[in-house]
Design goal:
The protein is of the alpha/beta class. The protein has one domain: NAD(P)-binding Rossmann-like Domain (Rossmann fold), CATH 3.40.50.720. The protein has ten helices and seven strands. The chain has a seven-stranded parallel sheet, sandwiched between helices. The mean pLDDT is 97. The structure holds NADPH dihydro-nicotinamide-adenine-dinucleotide phosphate. NADPH dihydro-nicotinamide-adenine-dinucleotide phosphate binds next to α1, α4 and α6.
Length: 272
Amino acid sequence: MKKVILITGASSGIGKKTALTLIEQGHTVYAAARRVEKMQDIVESGGHALKMDVTQVDQITAGVDTMIKEQGKIDVLINNAGYGLYGAVEDIPLEDARRQFEVNLFGLAAVTKAVLPHMRMARSGKIINTSSVGGKIYTPLGAWYHATKHAVEGWSDSLRLELKDKGIDVVVIEPGIIATEFGEVLYEPMLNYSGEGPYADMARKVANATKDVYEKKGSSSPPSVIADAISKAISSTRPKTRYRVGKLAKPLVWLRTFLGDRIFDKAVMTQV
Ligand code: NDP
């Protein structure tokens, strides 16, 4: 069935590919991001572009109002906007760490809060939150990023129970390594924070490992694997609570769960 869908973080990577896939499948898609100019292809494919910084409540309200005015409902919300803040805890100013939470957790929550009354009145809806395999595991210098994604996991599970009798479902997406702008966005700031000083050696190693993983052919999955998982969650009458997909997603979580933290620590540190 054709759905009215709002997806955030649609100017690049996973969000863009998902928006284009859902448009192709006949859904009405409103794509949101700060860089509206980067969503021209989505508009040309028949989608709608909304200028939306998920940390700006007025922009969220305006976007949701537009959708309700034009479509009368929102069937599916895909909270996908996010970025990785990497660097040593000692080096990253708390203000920057708060910004990471503002986007990855509170931004996602703000969009959800704006959409919920409409879904609740319709007694129907799906909220799909892009977490990460990083919401289950951890890497050195990624403390703030992992904190936000671990938070998204717990927040989403609680919300799913809260909305159970309202006809609204909540689904978590846990991507593995996906070839997008994600690696580029974290790379330079990490070296700015920690490229010199007591964590310099580790920062250089993590930077090289990140580069390898995001640039080497075969070490990442294309964003289409996530687009397909999201599409499956939308079309399913009883979606899974979590979709763990993409390069290394399943083995990494398996490693931590079944071998324990100490062995996982060793395995991660051999990679940096
Ligand atoms: P990209 O950097 O390619 O895309 C990130 C998107 O988020 C962009 O469209 C960007 O749009 C948007 N965004 C960032 N900050 C804001 C903001 N303040 N307000 C609104 N939009 C914002 O990365 P991905 O496609 O990889 O990332 C999508 C999601 O997937 C993220 O939540 C990420 O954490 C998650 N993820 C990615 C993995 C990967 O390996 N790529 C692995 C696991 C999870 P704009 O700058 O135009 O606003």
